[in-house]
Amino acid sequence: MSTELILASVIFVSIAFILVAVFMLSRFVGPKNKNSKIKNSVYESGVTNPVGNTNIRFSVKFYLVAISFLLFDVEIIFMFPWAVNVAELGYYGLIKMFIFMGLLFAGLIYIYKKKALLWD
User: Fold this and answer.
1) What spatial distance separates the first Cα and last Cα of the chain, rounded to whole Å?
2) Do 72 and 103 touch, CB atoms closer than 8 A?
3) pTM for the structure as a whole
4) Mean pLDDT by 10 residues, the chain (120 residues)
5) Where are its TM segments located (predicted)?
6) At 68, which CATH number?
């Protein structure tokens, strides 16, 4: 058996032991709350007695806006490193960023034409 394998095994077993010990310690040391009527009651946004049916369907536009936000938010992850290295990339990097921004702009136009941003 190699020393790397023995070291990896010892580290794995040590981490597993530490995790089990932490969970057991938190179970014994942590606060113990008995089930009570107040603890098990419904509480939503400051309202203790909800009114109406909770099985209502949401509009798909909520999800479209959320996905659109994520799409355009993730673009910043790609733009920041480009902005830091723009001098090193030169015109080639500038052209690639214009293509990237053009594709994102085309996506924004598509979302606008599908009227996903309108709240009727």
Assistant:
1) 69
2) no
3) 0.47
4) 91 97 90 73 67 72 82 84 88 91 89 80
5) 6-29, 62-83, 89-112
6) 1.20.58
